[in-house]
Amino acid sequence: MREAPSLLRSVHRPAAWSVPAESRLLRELDVLVEPAMRVFSLWTLVWWYEGALTPIWLVASVLAFALSYPGRSLLRAPARRVVSTVLVDWAWIAGLLLATAFATGYLSSLPVSVVGHWLWFAPASQLLAHWALRQAAPHLVRLQGPPLRAVVVGLNEQGVSLADRLAGERDGGIELVGYFDDRTDGRHGANAAHRYLGRLADIAAFVKIHRVQLIYLSLPMASQPRIKELLDALKDTTASVYFVPDMFVTDLIQGRPGSVCGMPVISVCETPFRGPAGLLKRGSDILLASLILLLITPLLLGVALAVKLTSPGPVIFRQRRYGLDGQEILVYKFRSMRVVEDGDVIRQASADDDRVTPLGRILRRTSMDELPQFVNVLQGRMSIVGPRPHAVAHNEFYRSLIKSYMVRHKVKPGITGWAQVNGFRGETDTLEKMEGRIRYDLDYLRNWSLRLDLHIIFRTIKLVFRDSAAY
Question: Is the pLDDT of residue 347 over 80?
């Protein structure tokens, strides 16, 4: 399960130019580019066509900025990813703004010249700003002064990974001086790529003499006495000290600091949908599910009639699944089989399964059998994007075989998910396939964002027309 964080590399971690952890200026500029350029492009067009900003345009500017900030960090992304992300994000935000203007009756009073040109000028200005920031980034880092000198303490797995990344940065704003480690089991030779500086007892003196500004402690939790002694020694220096999480504790899900009754705590396994993120997720589910149901109502009626006429049995199949926090929920589907199974033992559908009706094969291949689940979304039982819900019998079987299996239930199940658009759609007839699905589900929990949800939705639409894994 340790490789899971790398699964989103194609969406979140393409590395072309890296932003140093200490470059706050670049970080702020990076997330400010998109909201600022959306507002700037609107103001430019309003001044050009109308000569002055009226209250309605100020309100539109505030909404555009609020929906955009903080923007997506794209300084490290390849050009193709920047273009696709900007266009998808802008389509989503522009759609929301236009829908709001239509619902409030203001759309007809807005000049077509401004609105029409803003639809292309905003993303064009964002792309130009991203390109300019990327060109200026190395110079901005150098303007902040010489690189900060850093050492890594402890060459375990995460220590080696951090040292490799620091050493591999160009114009990163951090210079790796070397590492300290007490263990003498031959690892110093194995890590010859990094300079060995001495034992932990030597750190404080070295830091003061060589003016080291950053110290990264990569020591196991079991070394608590050593850590305390080291921190006491470092109080006589001005270096900034950071702990590198020791991942042997667990595979962190939404790990972040917090407090309980004034006591500091760090979350190890938490849902991403707390506070504003939960409201954003639920609001987007309600909006999208309502719009989709309105659009597909004729299709729903047609499919329901076809199911009723082609085989005996109920039109809607209700099956018990595990939902949020492992609570049982009823999930709706168009019936695609001649049988209705919901017992302690359920056989997954497979290729050439004789239980599937001829119409059911079409419904399952095109995922139209899942369409009634948009009603589940409006009920609050499901989300449009999330880990796919498994039958209760399957959950009880796999939870004892796969580590962290039940963690996927920290969020509502989804109609589609990150696993499904990455090749784990359809039957999971081996333990390895189910483990792969769970890896992607947990990766979704670690890296959730509204942008990722939209990315999954668009990939699902493409997948429906060319995927052969479902049956």
Answer: no
Whether 309 and 165 share a structural domain:
no
Q: Contact, 250 vs 261, CB < 8 A? A: no
259 in a structural domain: no
In the predicted structure, residue 17 carries a pLDDT above the cut 50? no
Specify the 3-state DSSP secondary structure of 153. Answer: strand
Cβ(271)–Cβ(282) under 8 Å? no
Give pairs for 195-203: CB < 8 Å, separation 24+: 197/151, 200/153, 200/226, 200/230, 203/151, 203/153, 203/230, 203/233, 203/234
Number of domains in the chain: 3
Please state, in angstroms and rounded to a whole number, the distance separating the CA atoms of residues 140 and 94.
32
E strand residue ranges, 315-364:
316-322, 328-334
Residue 258 lies in a domain: no
User: Domain limits at 71?
Assistant: 4-143
- Whether the Cβ atoms of residue 214 and residue 22 lie closer than 8 Å to each other: yes
Beta bridge partners of 398: none
Reduce the DSSP state of residue 111 to 3 states and report it: coil
* pLDDT of 189 above 80: no
The pTM score is 0.60
Work out the pLDDT band at 300, boundaries 50, 70, 90: very high
d(CA 233, CA 344): 60
Name the CA dihedral angle for 302, 307, 308, 310, rounded to a multiple of 10 degrees.
Answer: 120
Contacts of 395 (CB under 8 A, 6+ apart): 321, 322, 405, 406
CA 387/CA 418 separation, integer angstroms: 7
Q: β-strand 328-334 against 316-322: which pairing, if any?
A: antiparallel
DSSP secondary structure code for residue 115 in this structure: H
Largest CA distance in the chain: 85
- Residue 471 belongs to a domain: no
Pair 336, 397 in one domain: yes
